[in-house]
Write a structure and sequence with these properties.
The complex is a heterodimer of chains A (680) and B (149).
Chain A (H helix, E strand, L loop, with lengths): L1 H29 L2 H4 L2 H24 L6 H6 L6 H6 L5 H21 L6 H25 L23 H30 L4 H32 L10 H26 L3 H23 L6 H6 L2 H28 L10 H31 L5 E3 L1 H21 L10 H21 L9 H26 L6 H7 L2 H26 L1 E7 L4 E4 L2 E12 L3 E12 L2 E6 L2 E5 L5 E4 L1 E3 L4 E10 L5 E9 L2 H18 L2 H4 L7 H19 L7 H5 L1
Antiparallel strand pairs in A: 2-11, 3-4, 4-5, 5-6, 5-7, 7-8, 9-10, 10-11
Chain B lengths: L2 H29 L1 E5 L1 H5 L9 E7 L5 E2 L5 E7 L4 E7 L11 E8 L5 E6 L10 H19 L1
Parallel strand pairs in B: 1-2, 5-7
Antiparallel strand pairs in B: 2-4, 2-6, 3-4, 4-5, 6-7
Classes of the chains: A alpha+beta (680), B alpha+beta (149).
Chain lengths: 680, 149
């Protein structure tokens, strides 16, 4: 009964999405207020029905209803309650239901927090979101219905893949999907702008917080995924350049380009059509990511060819959305225009170079990810592209981008003077160069690549200091604290995110430069030493788990003959599936992680054991957290919080004018007159 | 410079920059492609010696041996027609089992033994790595054609 209710709710949601995707857009084009007014209630109704549907599926999982096919293949009665709930999105069908639920959630958020936007704009944005939703709901209903019954019902379920029975995996998909789906809002804003032909600084101001929010979720999602791979896969790696990872990394790269390009559109009215194009590309890559992961094309091109319904549907949907938006773009972009002019040396041009570098990076990831699939699909043999390719491409592409992080925020808009920037930043560069050269001596040995990585990181940090100091000098009277509190949150957000990059680079550099790994055979009482730490193997014991049996190793970690930590790595065998899983034990620290994993048992109670010493590895995720935090600071900036709907056009423009004038004072840049002000 | 000239200069320089970037990327790409060979292809000497490539198939039953008490293991990878001896030092993935599919990356030496740097871990035990599946498929096809002949 409950599953049928869920299915029925899903059908109703689809019908509402159909209304939401058509009438408001037509209404906005023809100027029919009653049709425009349909957008908000349709969105909210759709959300309610999808939430009911999701609730029904979650109930089926939690209550062990093995007459539902999806539950029987992805859950088990022994599975602990919280994992049974998380198993709701552990399957293909469930994760798509989560996708549409999150899409409906974002749409409701847009409908609620868009009071300051003109009604026809809201109608178009929500309409586009409705059309996106229709596609996914049809996909769910026709090819991957999560409520399909299994008759006769199974006695017990097949269990959730043990790799997914982990808090990291419970959080990772919703976060990642929040990011993917969030870009649909940026996409909807872009399409709405193309439909109306109206794209100005105010438009950028509306769509900017949404895009940044999506980017924050995507960053967090990727971070959790990477962290999960690190502690759960037992190989101690944090990024594998696996196709599934690349699928989420491509939208991130383009999304990062998009938030920078939006900054230019908001502040200067430039890069307009470029911003729109990036929004389309970011969302298309999100769809591509969903296609790659969900169609089964990665597991095997041939499996995809034998059961093509799902893959073909997403592919057609992808081609339809990308094709339609690009045609619309080609047709309407000239009307939107590129916007204001700028000189060769200016903040705009630096952001443009940053955009191009990020896009080239995304393009090379795409090449490495899709080319092997294409070759396979054409029957030209099997090839794979490994991490060496991606690493060889990424370092030369990202190094100049990181160098620009130091330069860009200090450059003036429109026209910057290179000599004055050199004077301002020469100390920052000198200090970072010297400390980058000296620092590696304090580690085990000096390596040129480590010095180079540290130089990039220190350069970011030093230039942030210079930037803040300069900004404070030019921000009027008062003590240090008043001056600090006078700066906007988005200003701090930018620096926080850039600092995150620096921290991330330090982590990657030091881990790649100085990690040590040993695979050793250990008998009871044996010890192994790496990087000044000694591991002593005290034997193993059998530990029962809720739905698995574990063999647990008992290991003492000693430093200078003193016990500093006990570690308990496990080897688990899951009851329902019989799968074996390695559960690594980690002693995490700010400056190093000690990582130990059980390999296989050998004769007379000996085990193969893998031990790692990983200096600064946690800085990788710390950096990601700082980036996400920076995004959160930027989204909560007060200029987004106060509505400007009640004021009329002149007030809005005068507000923009005074705002930019205060910017001028504080940032020492030449007067800015926004294009729409000129029109007035 | 006139605005028009400047525009042309900007476009020309960005096209050049993009071309250089594309050439560099494609160059690196080409030199990092890892090809796949099935045991039959290796037996027919189609695989390059001294260059890294991937091998896939099934771990032959009863072929897994450990060299003394070290972490070095050796096993045979078969596509049912031919079998290739593989040597690997390190921890095997959890899902490595005799009679199950496997993919390994490494180099073949003059002695005809494949020295693997990496044995790939897969996330599901019912799942056959695509390379392994295709090796079996090819061998089955080859057998069928030789039978009909």
């Amino acid at each position: 009964m409950i599953p049928e209710l869920g299915n029925f709710a899903l059908i109703l949601a689809m019908l509402l999405a159909l209304i939401q995707g058509t009438l408001p857009i037509i209404g906005a084009a023809r100027g029919i207020p009653s049709w425009i007014a349909l957008a908000r209630p349709a969105v909210q109704g759709q959300f309610v029905f999808i939430a009911i549907s999701f609730g029904c599926l979650a109930y089926s999982f939690v209550s062990n209803d093995f007459s539902v096919h999806n539950v029987a293949s992805h859950s088990n009665s022994e599975l602990p309650l919280h994992f049974r709930f998380a198993a709701t999105w552990g399957s293909h069908e469930g994760s798509l239901l989560l996708w549409v639920l999150l899409l409906a959630g974002w749409s409701v958020a847009v409908s609620v927090f868009s009071r300051q936007l003109p009604d026809d704009m809201v109608a178009r944005v929500l309409g586009v979101l409705g059309l996106v939703s229709v596609g996914f709901l049809l996909f769910l209903l026709f090819t991957s219905n999560p409520f399909d019954r299994l008759l006769p019902a199974a006695l017990d379920g097949n269990d959730l893949n043990p790799l997914l029975q982990d808090p990291g995996m419970v959080l990772h998909p919703p976060m990642l999907y929040m990011g993917y789906v969030g870009f649909s809002v940026a996409f909807a804003f872009a399409i709405a702008a193309l439909l109306s032909g109206q794209l100005d600084a105010a438009w950028a101001r509306w769509s900017r917080p949404w895009t940044t929010a999506a980017w924050v979720f995507l960053t967090t999602g990727i971070m959790i995924g990477s962290w999960w791979a690190y502690y759960e896969l037992g190989w101690g790696g944090w990024w594998f350049w696996d196709a599934v990872e690349n699928a989420s990394f491509m939208p991130w790269l383009v999304g990062t380009a998009l938030i920078h390009s939006l900054a230019v559109t908001e502040k200067r009215g430039s890069f307009k059509s470029w911003t729109v194009l990036l929004a389309i590309v970011a969302f298309s890559l999100s769809l591509l990511g969903t296609f790659l992961v969900r169609s089964g094309v990665l597991t095997s091109v041939h499996a995809f060819a034998t059961d093509p319904a799902r893959g073909i549907f997403i592919l057609v949907y992808l081609v339809a959305i990308v094709g339609f938006s690009l045609i619309l773009f080609a047709w309407r972009a000239p009307k939107v225009g590129l916007g204001g002019n700028f000189q060769l040396i200016s903040r705009e041009s630096m952001l443009l170079v940053n955009n191009v570098l990020l896009l080239v990076a995304a393009g090379s990831v795409m090449l490495g990810t899709l080319y092997p699939l294409l070759v396979d699909a054409l029957g030209l043999g099997k090839i794979s592209v490994g991490p060496p390719y991606f690493e060889a491409v990424f370092v030369p592409l990202m190094a100049p981008a990181i160098f620009l992080i130091g330069l860009g925020p200090i450059a003036r808009w429109k026209q910057a003077s290179l000599p004055s920037m050199v004077i301002r930043l020469r100390w920052a560069f000198g200090v970072s160069l010297i400390s980058a050269l000296i620092m590696p001596f304090f580690m085990s040995e000096w390596k040129p690549l480590v010095s180079f990585g540290l130089l990039l990181a220190f350069w970011i940090i030093a230039s942030i200091f210079v930037n803040i100091k300069h900004r404070l000098q030019n921000s009027g009277e008062g003590g240090l604290l008043t001056k600090l509190s006078r700066q906007s949150r988005s200003y701090y957000g930018m620096h926080c995110a850039h600092l995150g990059i620096a921290v991330f680079v330090i982590g990657v550099t030091l881990v790649n430069g100085y990690e040590t790994e040993k695979d050793v055979r250990m008998e009871i009482g044996n010890t192994v030493s790496i990087s000044g730490y000694t591991f002593r193997f005290n034997g193993i014991s059998n530990i029962p788990g809720p739905n698995y049996k574990a063999v647990q190793g008992d290991i003492d970690v000693l430093k200078d003959d003193k016990l500093i930590q006990k570690l308990y790595p496990e080897k688990r065998t899951y009851n329902a599936s019989g799968m074996v899983m390695t559960e690594a034990a980690i002693d995490a620290g700010l400056f190093r992680d000690l990582y130990i994993a059980l390999g296989e048992p050998l004769d007379n109670n000996a085990w193969v054991v893998r031990v790692y010493h990983k200096p600064f590895v946690d800085w990788i995720w710390l950096g990601c957290i700082l980036m996400a935090l920076g995004g959160i600071l930027a989204v909560t900036d007060r200029r987004y919080r106060y509505g400007i709907r009640k004021k009329d056009k002149t007030e809005i423009t005068s507000e923009i004018l005074t705002k930019s004038n205060t910017d001028i004072k504080s940032r020492d840049i030449e007067p800015v007159i926004l294009p729409e002000v000129r029109k007035v | 410079m006139k605005p028009r000239h400047k525009k042309i200069a900007i476009i020309a320089s960005s096209v050049t920059a993009l071309t250089i970037a594309a050439i560099l990327v494609l160059n690196v790409f080409q030199s990092n492609l890892v090809f796949f060979f099935s045991p039959s292809q290796i037996a027919a000497n189609e695989a390059p010696i001294g260059k890294s490539f991937r091998i896939g198939g099934i771990v032959e039953e009863g072929s897994l041996t450990r060299q003394g008490s070290s972490t070095t293991v050796s096993f045979a990878v078969t596509d049912t027609a031919e079998a290739i001896q593989v040597v690997y030092t390190g921890i095997l993935p959890d899902l490595f089992k005799e009679g199950k599919g496997v993919v390994a990356q490494g180099k073949i030496a003059d002695d005809g033994i494949f020295y693997a740097d990496e044995v790939l871990a897969k996330h599901d035990e019912n799942y056959m790595p695509p390379e392994a599946a295709s090796a079996l498929e090819q061998a089955a096809k080859a057998q069928k054609t030789s039978l009909t002949q």
